[in-house]
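sorry for the late reply, my laptop died twice this morning and i had to redo everyting from scratch. anyway the thing you sent over, i finally got around to it. pasting the sequence first so we're on the same page, its 259 residues, then the predicted structure underneath. double check i copied it right bc i was rushing
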Amino acid sequence: MQLPRFAQGHDPGPSFLDLLKQSGLSPFSSPSSEVDVPHGTTCLALKFADGVLIAGDRRATAGNIIRSRHMDKVVEADRYSGVAFSGAAGPSMEMIKLFQLQLEHYEKMEGKSLSLEGKANQLSSMIRDNMPAAMQGLAVLPLFAGFEPEDGSGHIWDFDVTGGRYEEREHVTIGSGGTHAGTVLKVGWRSTLDRTNAVTLACRALWEAAEADSATGRPDFLRGLFPIMATITAAGWSSVPDSELEIVFRAIEEEVRTR
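ok and here's the structure:
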């Protein structure tokens, strides 16, 4: 296999995406808007005392059809960051895989990790590159959260379809159920939240989103399916186990039943 060669001044450097572009390869395709594709829905992130929490339901829909009940919309980007997505599921998963590869490529080329803000900028660029597909109805709207060891605090970013990025100070929601989940977060969020209360608040937000939005999946006690949820702190990425989520959701269900 012959490696590509680049003229002076056109070296893509540590950017894997730039390497693809310089090699004449397009990281994203622009399929027809007539294709009926699964879409991801409600995701959220919030800051708490030790870092950030990121979560999302697991339902993917195509129109009024439930295409999947166990989609992983929240993934670990690297040790100190994670991504959640809403929008067209196929392009979203492709973008996240490329994003993970880009971060790994940069670290191997430079010998150090990209800063958290640099990661958000890179994701913003990838969303902008997806504009042709977005204009055909296949938009990807991720949510990025992480912990910055340099300043010892968590950070959250959301994006618009043009690649604009916006850092949020407290919490953020995306997807069709985001308005309902956001109301719960707005009422319940406190800067002093510990991990346990942050998990409970996120569960309540996703519960209320599922109550009002048919595209957002509820916890499924029968199948043992619960939202994907993780915390990112100075210790790195840590998934919240389903056993813990089941206890919280059963308590919420009992509270709702007794109202």
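The two ends are 67 Å apart (CA to CA).
thats about all i looked at so far, will dig more tmrw
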